[in-house]
């Protein structure tokens, strides 16, 4: 660490309570290194929750990170207060003349729409196109990953017969690749989605490599061979209770959801879920920041190609 954000960002206080923001500004300045510039295009409706989750995983490295929070301009979010957005968020227009070391494009609950129906699709595709020349490595999550695979590689999105929700077992296909260095042969990771990116389309594209997959729910980690684009089709950033909240929300709506798989002790929703994916999540984000961002990015950002 440390992560540099505006001091009054609520996520900062939450993570300080977890002892995450451990280095003070004076020490950070005395280190005399260039902080990494990482933008988070936050497409999730519960933006503050996502901020906490992503800042937590990004903070598990010795690197200094400057965070830029981005919202869409062509779609105005409705579940995050305007004052929070005004205070902490910028739009693509504000930063498009900069170069960045890394960018994260989050998930979004728009799976059932065709990509082109999503109100900010044109803006998102402009951003994705821009990342190819202005960002060292871009990390896409869940719907953001499906959208990136579709935009960059034409990988189709397929609606599943029923929602995938739970903690699934995955295997690593090639542990020598740096993104999964330090992973165990098998590991657990959350998924929460009603769609998947076509496994056939992914496998027929020679630029794409599948690094981790599950017999039950398919692909989890896909990347381009050059590491410039990472696609994570699950939610390793999720908190202990995120799937629980989604399940109980859908119960309350009368949607009769299935219990998240392999999640509650004794499969009983009254029991506190065990956190079984945090070490993997920390390892994945640290590997990304280290090998695909820090070791790859030029000291002079204008030299990104
Ligand atoms: C597949 C994945 O990537 S998983 C990630 C998504 N998961 C989550 O977001 C989990 C948390 N979300 C939730 O629990 C719910 O979405 C809630 C409770 C926040 C809101 O649910 P509802 O009120 O039923 O949905 P609502 O119709 O208001 O739209 C929800 C979100 O869908 C998105 N959305 C809806 N319509 C559109 C549209 N036409 N274009 C673009 N985005 C849209 C927006 O992100 C919207 O939230 P926002 O306006 O705050 O950005
Ligand atoms: N994670 C999402 C899936 C829907 O896009 C939810 O259950 O809210």
From TrEMBL:
Pathway: Amino-acid biosynthesis; L-methionine biosynthesis via de novo pathway; O-acetyl-L-homoserine from L-homoserine: step 1/1. It comes from the Bacteria. Its EC number is 2.3.1.31. GO terms for molecular function: homoserine O-acetyltransferase activity; homoserine O-succinyltransferase activity. Signal peptide: none annotated. CDD domains: GATase1_HTS. Keywords: Acyltransferase, Amino-acid biosynthesis, Cytoplasm, Methionine biosynthesis, Transferase. Substrate binds at residues 163, 192, 249. The active site is at 142 (acyl-thioester intermediate), 235 (proton acceptor), 237. This is Homoserine O-acetyltransferase. The record marks 192 as: Important for substrate specificity. It comes from Eshraghiella crossota DSM 2876. It catalyses: L-homoserine + acetyl-CoA = O-acetyl-L-homoserine + CoA. Belongs to the MetA family. Its main location: cytoplasm. The gene is metA.
